[in-house]
Amino acid sequence: MTPEILAQLAPTGVLRAGINLSNFLLVTGRSPEGEPEGVSPAWPAPSPTGSACRCST
Questions:
Q1: H or E stretch including 29?
Q2: On the CB side of 51, how many CA atoms lie within 13 Å of its CA?
Q3: Strand, helix or coil for residue 36
Q4: Which residues contact 34 (CB under 8 A, 6 or more apart)?
Q5: Would you list the domain boundaries of the chain?
Q6: Using one digit for the tens of pLDDT, what is the confidence trace for 1-22?
Q7: How far apart are CA 29 and CA 13, in angstroms?
Q8: Distance set, CA 40 to CA 1, 19, 29 (Å)
Q9: Core vs surface per residue 10-48: b (16+ CB within 10 A) or e
């Protein structure tokens, strides 16, 4: 990914994502820990420091 694209998507260096948990096509259930499961929750995977993905070049 180019620096220009990163600057447009995440100008502060953090890309935040939200999930509509009521869309049953993308969120199929919950794990034993209570986390959402399915296509949408699998992307992006949570970072080790929290739910935000840090962007870098």
A1: strand 29-30
A2: 7
A3: strand
A4: none
A5: 3-54
A6: 788 988 898 898 888 777 777 8
A7: 31
A8: 21, 7, 11
A9: beeeeeeeeeeeeeeebbeeeeeeeeeebebbeeeeeee
Looking at residue 13, its amino acid is G
Expressed in percent and rounded to 5, the helix, strand and coil fractions of the chain are: 20, 20, 65
Give CA separation, 18 vs 32, 41, 47, 57, in Å.
Answer: 21, 9, 15, 23
Query: From the CA atom positions of the chain, what is the Rg in Å?
Result: 14
8 φ/ψ sector (left φ>0, alpha ψ -120 to 50, else beta): alpha
pLDDT of residue 42: 67
This prediction's pTM: 0.40
